[in-house]
Amino acid sequence: MHPPTPFLIPRKVEQDVELCNYIIPKGSLILVNVWATSRDPTFWKDPLEFKPERFQSLEVDVRGQDFELIPFGAGRRICPGLPLGMRLVQIMLGSLLNSFNWILEGDIEPKDLDMEETFSFISSSASYPISSFDIYNKSYIWHTMLV
Ligand code: HEM
C-alpha cells in the first residue's frame, strides 16, 4: 500500500490501443500509478489506516495477478528481482528488529507519527520519527545471518 516506486517504469504505446472506451494513441507515454491504485477506496477498506492484519484474511497477492496491489509491477516486464526482493525485505526487517532496541524519541506517541511519504522516483518516509535507537549489545554481522 506504500509502493517504493509510486509509478511503474514508463511504457511507450507501439500502436493505437482502445482501453475502457478511450483511445490511447501510438507513441503515448504510459505511467501506471500504483500509489493511487493501492489506496483506492473502491478496492480497499480504510486504505489510509495502518492495518497490516488486513492481509491475513485477504487472497490478494503481490505477484502481479491482483492489480489492486502490484508493487512489483505485472505482466512480462514484472520485476525480475521479485523473489529476491521478497526474501531481502524479510531478512532486513527481521534483522533490524532483532538487532536493535527501538524506542520513540521524547514523548512522541505512536499515533502522532507522520507516516506520509515524500514523492520522488522512489518513495521515502516524510520524516524519520524513530530517530534514536540504542544498539542492543548484539553483533550485527550480516553474513552470519545470511548463511
Ligand atoms: C522489494 C523489492 C523490490 C520492489 C518493490 C521492486 C519493484 C519493481 C517495480 C515496480 C518494477 C517495475 C515493473 C513494471 O514497470 O512493470 C521493477 C523493475 C525491475 N526490477 Fe525491481 N523491485 C524490487 C527488487 C528488485 C531486485 C532485488 C532486483 C534485482 C536484483 C530488481 C530488479 C529489477 C529490474 C531489472 C527491473 C526492470 C525489469 C524490466 O523492465 O524488464 N528489483 N521493480
UniProtKB/TrEMBL annotation:
Q: Which GO terms describe its cellular component?
A: membrane
Record has 4Fe-4S as a keyword:
no
Keyword annotations of the record: Heme, Iron, Membrane, Metal-binding, Monooxygenase, Oxidoreductase, Transmembrane, Transmembrane helix
In terms of superkingdom, the source organism counts as Eukaryota
Query: Which InterPro entries does the annotation name?
Result: Cyt_P450, Cyt_P450_CS, Cyt_P450_E_grp-I, Cyt_P450_sf
Compartments where found: Membrane
Q: Where do the annotations place heme binding? A: C79
- Pfam families registered for this protein in UniProt: p450
Cofactor needs? heme
Main location per the UniProt record: membrane
Q: Does the keyword Transmembrane helix apply?
A: yes
Can you provide one Gene Ontology molecular function annotated for this UniProt record?
iron ion binding
What PANTHER family does its record include?
A: CYTOCHROME P450, FAMILY 76, SUBFAMILY C, POLYPEPTIDE 5-RELATED (PTHR47950), GERANIOL 8-HYDROXYLASE-LIKE (PTHR47950:SF4)
Q: Which family does it belong to?
A: Belongs to the cytochrome P450 family.
**Name assigned to this protein:** Cytochrome P450
Q: What is the lineage of its organism?
A: Eukaryota, Viridiplantae, Streptophyta, Embryophyta, Tracheophyta
